[in-house]
Specification:
about 850 residues, mainly beta, 67 strands, eight-stranded antiparallel sheet, nine-stranded mixed sheet
């Protein structure tokens, strides 16, 4: 569930343990509006609840025990005539008057997408909270499937959902013996087995989704009698496997007894595919508590490349369960072609395709043509094929398509060939070539309606070549070494309708060797060394010895390879370790390139390996939730959290654009003393698109403190984030000596500024603000009234900062791993 705080959307924190129902609510206030029953008692007492929303106002509904637990404005919540209406993305109402111990339960709701204007997605969903987790079950109108999200993570999606305006649907979630089953209009859509034991129901919440005005007719919840029938469960790992010809892979099976089951379980496999065999060992297990087995899958040398399933079943008397393994058999060389000879999108999706963006109605297929249509200004509708052999570093992708409709202006009307590698996304329209979101080539034009165009992208030895109707139009040299093809597909732009005849993907049939590097880029700390593994692969039958060399600039890292020669067998691979010793870094980050060249006879190819030299140690974004989160894994170098020995988080380099929680450092609900010092938090605005006014990846703050007390934030660099620092409900936070550089406007946020200190007093000073361009320094003193006597501090305040600095501070050298961080602030 999402809650809006100010202008931000935040996940609602589900409590671990709910209090017993609020006894102060009187039945007299509930009975007039509720239909059905509401039973309360011990865990053995049946629980039943139903609400038909027969309230004259939201005030009456709240008085009956509901809460407005979402973040939308009050005007977006409406109730009347037996209908609850939720309009905004953050809207939600919650009912938590549930007795303890209802571990097996069912929740049902009837709802309809009710308005198209400003509400074009049509998602219907409900969030249910248990003592351990939250589950959101949705008929998702945006992605066009049914989904179950557990604690913010997608754990299930299935089916093909097309939103219907003003059509009521009944949805249901059942939790029985730790297994959740999802229903839509009475049909079971799938299930998810909860690994945690805490399944007791604590809350149910009708919830609005983005661009989906929804009317709820009723909601019910009740306990279910726990099953007492002896049974067993069967699970396995891994569930997705990739096999090369003539190879085998293995996995593990786990069987667990349910309700005292004891007996023999027979295990069997089913492949149904020529050239693919599978086996289980042992084939029978005696189960009384937990038992384990292994499975093996082998692809023969004659097996056809593609996607397949292997079903492993366990049977004991009338009880039977199965586990499905999804396989992809590689071909070498890789060859793929699809002429879109499907009778429906359901058949196409079952054949291995997926969709991205748009609406369910945006995709149609038939008579050998795939049609992608956009009737609104939404970009990036695409079909995606990802069943591609690993390490296809040289490749060619072709697509034949035509524009059959679009806007009257022709703006944005284009067919798109999309190829995604291990590190980048290339999109070729016939006139424009994009690498990720950057335009690297542009000309005119391929917008003619009812004209077929042949688009092609080739990647050979790190160079991308773009073709239109067989003619070379553009080339681009890729600096990233990992060009392995991951997925391909046709795409459609906003306001465009496009038809596609076929798509192909292949690698050269002539024997060659491919290159890659892991990790890439190679990250090295100033004046230290680091290693990356150079991957050399035999493709299309290549065999032989490959000599390797590495070179770089004289100002860059010194490099070496070990070994300097590798031998490849047909379909095999080899590795060499590249070692780079970094020079002294004079800025937070310095970028270099190392050229690695492989030679075999007359065949030679090179690739560039990017090397990033940092002054500080890279760290993933940090989330500290409560005082127990102050750990070394969360960047704490020293301290015990008391006033004389605070926790110290120092000397890290954090890329905020990689954050999954909206900040480079997010700290919340803490009371321990801490210091954040000499940390470089940057790039939270990396994905910002000024044209669309949004971010992909999501925008992020630098440092965010929510309901935090007693901390010091000093000597940090906050660069190019949404807010450099954001304080929410926090107090006794002191910030000084920080560089706020090119963050969003404003560069900071504080909803309780009188309880915090945005400077260190005089003469320590405050912070440097890159947008404080009108600052003047003629005077000095606590009141800046001793003139003329410049002191490096602006004569005027910057917001809450009484003593803004005229120049950025100069950071201390990085601390050693396990050290206590740099020294105090000083300025030049």
């Amino acid at each position: 569930m999402l809650v809006m705080t100010g202008s931000r959307v935040r996940k609602r924190a589900w409590p671990i343990v709910r209090l017993v129902m609020i006894v102060c609510l009187t039945l007299a206030s509930i009975i007039p509006y509720m239909a059905g029953t509401f039973s309360v008692g011990a865990s053995s007492t049946p629980f039943a609840f139903r609400d038909d929303f027969n309230y004259p106002s939201m005030g009456d509904m709240i008085a009956a025990g509901w809460t407005e637990c979402g973040g939308g404005p009050a005007s977006s919540y409406r109730v009347g005539n037996g209908i609850l209406s939720l309009k905004e993305d953050a809207d939600a109402v919650c009912w938590d008057n549930v007795p303890q111990g209802v571990s097996d339960w069912t929740v049902t709701w009837r709802a309809a997408w009710s308005e198209f204007s400003g509400s074009w997605v049509g998602t219907i969903r409900m969030t249910v909270g248990t003592s351990q987790h939250s589950y959101t079950y949705a008929a998702d109108g945006y992605w066009g499937y049914f989904s179950l999200v557990r604690d913010g993570a997608l754990v299930f999606h299935n089916g093909w959902y097309s939103a219907d305006l003003n059509v009521f649907h009944t949805m249901r979630l059942d939790m029985v013996s730790g297994k959740i089953t999802m229903y839509f209009d009475g049909a079971a859509m799938g299930s998810y087995t909860e690994p945690d034991p805490g399944t007791s129901l604590v809350e149910l919440s009708p919830t609005a989704a983005g661009y989906s005005h929804v009317n709820f007719d009723y909601v019910t919840a009740s306990s279910l009698p726990a099953s007492t029938t002896p049974d067993f469960s069967l699970s396995g790992n891994p569930s997705h496997l990739i096999l090369a010809h003539g190879s085998s892979v293995t996995g593990n099976l786990t069987l667990n007894s349910i309700n005292g089951f004891s007996g023999t379980v027979t295990l069997q496999t089913l492949t149904g595919t020529s050239g693919l065999t599978a086996s289980v060992s042992p084939s029978t297990v005696l189960l009384s508590s937990t038992a384990r087995a292994t499975f093996s899958v082998t692809a023969s040398s004659t097996a056809m490349g593609g996607r397949y399933n292997v079903t492993i079943s366990g049977t004991s008397g009338q009880a039977s369960h199965s586990f499905k393994v999804f396989l992809f058999i590689e071909s070498n060389p890789y060859v793929f072609r699809d002429d879109f000879n499907y009778v429906s999108m359901k058949e196409m999706l079952a054949g291995g395709w997926t969709t991205s963006g748009g609406f369910p109605s945006s995709y149609t297929v038939g008579s050998g043509l795939l049609v992608l249509s956009q009737n609104s200004n939404v970009e990036n509708t695409a079909a995606v094929w990802s069943a591609i052999s690993t390490r296809v570093s040289d490749w060619s992708v072709t697509l034949r398509g035509e524009r059959i409709g679009g806007s009257s202006t022709g703006y944005g009307d284009e067919i798109r060939l999309i190829a995604v590698t291990a590190t980048h996304r290339y999109m070729w329209t016939g006139s424009e070539l994009f690498r990720d979101s950057t335009l690297v080539f542009s000309t005119c034009c391929t917008g003619q309606v009812n004209t077929w165009y042949d688009l092609r992208l080739d990647m050979v030895a790190g160079t991308v070549s773009a073709y239109l109707n067989g003619n070379l139009a553009a080339t681009y040299v890729e600096a990233d070494p990992n060009t392995y093809l991951n997925s391909v597909g046709p795409g459609s732009s906003a306001l465009s309708t496009d038809s596609f005849d076929y798509i192909t993907a292949s690698e050269p049939s002539i024997p060659y060797f491919g290159f890659g590097a892991s990790p890439s880029p190679l990250i090295v700390i100033s004046q230290r060394s680091g290693n990356t593994t150079i991957l050399v692969d035999s493709r299309s039958g290549f065999t032989g010895s490959v000599s390797l060399t590495a070179t770089g600039s004289s100002q860059g890292p010194s490099v070496s390879l070990n070994p300097t020669s590798v031998s490849l067998t047909n379909g095999g691979s080899a590795t060499s370790v590249l070692t780079a010793v970094a020079p002294f870094a004079t800025s937070p980050e310095e970028d270099f390139e190392i050229t690695v060249t492989g030679t075999s006879g007359t065949v030679s190819r090179s690739m560039s390996v990017p090397v990033q030299v940092f002054q500080r140690y890279p760290h993933t974004p940090i989330l500290i939730d409560g005082d127990g989160g102050f750990t070394s894994a969360n960047g704490v170098r020293s301290g015990t959290g008391i006033a004389t020995d605070p926790y110290v988080i120092s000397d890290w380099d954090i890329d905020a654009s990689t954050s999954t929680f909206g900040s480079g450092i997010l700290m919340r609900h803490t009371t321990a003393h801490f210091v954040i010092r000499n940390v470089y938090v940057h790039s939270g605005l990396k994905g910002y698109d000024s044209f669309y006014g949004g971010c992909d990846p999501a925008c992020a703050d630098g440092i965010e403190l929510q309901q935090v007390t007693t901390g010091i934030v000093e000597q940090n660099i906050l660069y190019w984030n949404t807010n450099g620092v954001w304080l929410a409900g926090s107090s006794n936070i002191t910030l000084f000596g920080n560089n706020f550089l090119q963050n969003g406007f404003p560069q900071y946020s504080d909803d309780n500024p009188t309880a915090n200190h945005w400077d260190g007093g005089y003469p320590v000073g405050g912070n440097y603000w890159s947008d404080n361009t009108g600052a003047v320094d003629n005077c000095s003193g606590p009141s800046q009234n001793i003139c003329p006597d410049p002191d490096g501090i602006s004569d005027s305040n910057y917001g809450y900062d009484r003593y803004p600095l005229m120049k950025p501070f100069v950071p201390d050298p990085p601390a050693t791993i396990g050290g206590g961080g740099g020294g105090r602030f000083y300025q030049t």
